Request: fold
Amino acid sequence: MDSPELRSLGWKACFQSQLTEADAGCLVVRVAAHFGSQLLCLSKNGDLVLPISLVDSCREIAVGDWLLLDGLSRRGQRRLERESLLIRKAAGSALQTQLIAANVDTLFIVSSCNQDFNLSRLERYLALALEARITPIVVLTKSDLCADSDALRQQVLQIKRDVVVELVDARDAKQVAVLEDWCGVGQTVGLLGSSGVGKSTLAMTLGAGSLATQGIREDDSKGRHTTTARCIHRMRSGGLLIDTPGMRELQLTGCDEGVADVFDDIITLSRKCRFRDCTHRSEPGCAIQGAIESGQLEPRRLRSYRKLQAEQARNAKSLSQRRDEFRKQGKLYKSIQNEKKSRRNQA
Reply:
């Protein structure tokens, strides 16, 4: 099934290797948008719209997924195993996870050089990308409105020394051109960031088509939601871009490796503490507190690390409890149905 047309949509060897002889008559499609009761999909033969009822056998579906459809009925056969998946705890009090995007190669983490700039938020986004083994690129927009945007770049590099940080005016095609190395044919890029940081403007400058933009509120530099649904756009350079709605809340779950990667400096320091069970608060010989006192480590960074650890533990426990409750409810429902069936048979 491998073809130049599929490769232009992000098809790779890891997907090709999952196919068997029995799949020869299937149509391979990539999910480009999820509109409630319908999916917009991309294929080597063009775009097609599918009722969600046709692919309900493919389990949970995210934008960016690859599906196999029956060649005649277009009914979903299965979803191919993902190369990467961005996931978060669903916003609000709901105890469930939300799929953000699948099979992303590079994540543009967008923040602006104004009041939106927030290191703790960037740490969250970086942890999310690294957990999914996606290359993160921090894009600082509105650099033209900042007196010392390079100082903000240095702050980002202090939280993750090897991360790439690009300063751009999202409206300027020449400045945005520095991102095109990650946007070539067959590459899938995700856009992630708060509302109003310039994601939609950046997407349009990358040639991803016309997206409606809204202004920034002058009183607090915050923006309004522009993108309301995740959607794949073709970029001028040949790659694919998944734009996502601005996220006011990004709670992590199942992100231990990503958090450890972002806070590797704190983990390294903790190994030098006098006591193995050091809580890094008031114990004698605490290497982390020593680093804070000497100015080597910012107190904010330790607070951020603790917050993400506690949040993950809480969300993981809540989600696990919810799964257990669902299993118990399912068993109870089955036992009731079996009892009713038994009574009918006896009658």
Summary: The first helix runs from residue 4 to 7. The mean pLDDT is 85. The CA atoms of residues 270 and 288 lie 6 Å apart. The radius of gyration is 23 Å.
